[in-house]
Amino acid sequence: MSAESPGPSGRFHHWRLRFRAWRGTRPFWAGLLTLLGGLPIAYFPYANLTVGQLTIRMATTAGAGSLVIGVLLVVLGLTMWYQSAVKNFAGVAAIMLALVSLVVSNVGGFLLGFLPALIGGALSIAWAPGQPRPEPAAGPAPEKADPTAVPAPAAAGAGGDDDTNGRHRAG
Hints:
Elements: H1 7-24, H2 28-43, E1 48-51, E2 54-57, H3 63-82, H4 87-104, H5 106-110, H6 114-126
Antiparallel strand pairs: 1-2
Helix pairs in contact: 2-3, 2-4, 2-6, 3-4, 4-6
């Protein structure tokens, strides 16, 4: 490997930058939290806890319902990643499923599934795509205003229709 070749670190850097660009165009953290919230909700109703020779089964009467809720939350998390156009629907559905899991699935997977799914749904609803940065104009730089200059006070009542100084106009 020569000093000029990018080597493995160059390839890693390239993939990291591509992942960062991909992650910035969709509600990544919302999808991740929703996906991770579905796993304990689906797992705990079927789990066995063994302490010595004592086996405790945490099965509930709604075990199948817990499995359906957990799988739907995982699917909604993936939907947030790959179909970001339906992020609002996926966020509302994730919040509703997280709330239903409190009743159906051992207090929402002992709150280990409820909280990430709820936060992920809220993040999905609140997410908005970023605005591209404007490129600087090719030409002379605009002149900067003097920061020490104080503007002259306006005459009383001389403000336009838009200048209400935070107050409502009568009439």
